[in-house]
Specification:
178 residues; alpha+beta; Alpha-Beta Plaits; 4-stranded antiparallel sheet; 5 helices; 4 strands; 33% helix
């Protein structure tokens, strides 16, 4: 068994890739309201800040900052995944279970990267927002409805035309399967 080493930094900012087991699924965007509710519930119970996020059909990317005295991002992801899975089952979606009785919706692990500095943060926020263009889901980052880029545009941090042309960061290795 592979021993995964996680970097737990109280108050840290992290980039995550969280993926469904079925890479052909569209359930994250088809049930976006249930996913948003799962995030809201967990943020209420165990506060954190979503600095940037994009939800694609079968995976999502998020840049998250934890409170100063807290480093438990794994517990938050476990709670978000569980809340979303339970709400799907409650809404009548048929979800297979594994031998432990856990829903087999999500991949068991996730990709995590500790943000090192302001440049690293900008690179990961840009990557997050550009991801729908990278995957051919939209021609402009602002055209994808399930992205925090809309908040960035409203605040004047980026223009509505940001993420149209191929960007240099889109070829960086962020842990996604190619």
């Amino acid at each position: 068994m592979v021993a995964y080493r996680r970097n737990y930094v109280p108050g840290g900012t992290y980039f995550f890739t969280v993926t469904l087991r079925n890479r052909r699924s569209r359930i994250l965007i088809e049930q976006i309201d249930l996913l948003r509710a799962a995030f809201r519930d967990v943020v209420h119970e165990r506060p954190f800040t979503i600095d940037a996020i994009v939800v694609l059909p079968e995976h999502l990317h998020a840049v998250m900052t934890l409170p100063a005295s807290d480093a438990d991002y794994s517990g938050r992801w476990r709670a978000i995944k569980s809340a979303f899975s339970r709400s799907l089952a409650k809404a009548g979606h048929s979800l297979p279970k594994d031998r432990r009785g856990e829903y087999r919706l999500w991949q068991r692990r996730f990709w995590e990267h500790t943000i090192r500095d302001a440049d690293d943060l900008q690179t990961h926020v840009d990557y997050t927002h550009y991801n729908p263009v990278k995957h051919g889901l939209s021609s402009r980052a602002a055209d994808w409805p399930y992205s925090s880029i809309h908040r960035f545009i409203r605040r004047g941090w980026v223009g509505a035309d940001w993420g149209v042309a191929p960007e240099s960061f889109c070829d960086a290795d962020f842990g996604e399967p190619r």
